[in-house]
Each structure stands twice: as C-alpha cells, then as structure tokens.
C-alpha cells in the first residue's frame, strides 16, 4: 500500500516544478486583462463615434496622433494577451517537439499582427 502512495507522490513532485512556477505568467495575464478594460471601453466608444461616418471618417479618426497611439497600444496589449493565453493552452495540452513548434508558430502570428498594425499606422500617417 505504501508503494502506491510513493508512486503518486513522485508523479506529483515531477509534475510540479516549483511553487512559484507560472506565477509571473499568471500575473502578466491578469495585468494585461486589467489594462485592456479601459482600452476596450475606449475602442467601443471610438467605434460608436465614427459609426456611419464612412471610410473617410475612420481614416481621419486613425490619423489623429492620440487615436493612432491608442490603436497601436490596444493591438500590442491584445496580441500579447492572446499570445500568453494560447501559450498556456499549448503548455497544458501538447508535449515534445509539437509543443515547441506550436509556441513558435503562435509567436510568429503574434509578431505578424503587431508588425502589420504598426505598418498600417505608419503608412496611414505618411499619407497625411
């Protein structure tokens, strides 16, 4: 009977790397969630304020430096939050080389989204 408890205890010990493992990631996810609350409220207000104005109104809105900065910040924080969430899912359910490759692909997608947003804002302001 003691053998079964030892085997269970060993598997739990090998699974649990440390008491603080993942605490930083958990705090970062919660931090980005908190930062996204006012940014999301701003985005909803912005969408409401330019609704019905057409393409020109949207371009004029995004050309304003404050709005462009908030758009960039919202995308950056949102993509970072998405990356951390998907990474946690991958860490929980995948193992081995597939895990590392999936995290790499998630990073590439995240980087592409941030770069595309930055490029779009840059091009938009070059035409101003």
Determine the mean pLDDT: 87
Give the distance, in angstroms, between the N- and C-terminal Cα atoms: 77 Å
Computed structural class:
mainly alpha
Order of helices and strands: HHHHH
What CATH calls the topology is 3 helical TM bundles of succinate and fumarate reductases
Please mark out the parts with pLDDT under 50 across 5 or more consecutive residues, or reply none: none
Quick tags:
0% strand; 128 residues; mainly alpha
Structure, explained:
By secondary structure, the chain is mainly alpha-helical. The chain has a single domain (18-126), classed as 3 helical TM bundles of succinate and fumarate reductases (Up-down Bundle), CATH 1.20.1300. The chain contains five helices and no strands. Helix 2 packs across helix 4 and helix 4 (65-93) runs antiparallel to helix 5.
Topology:
Layout: H1 2-15, H2 23-50, H3 54-63, H4 65-93, H5 96-126
Helix pairs in contact: 2-4, 4-5
Quick recap of the structure?
The protein has 128 residues and is mostly helical.
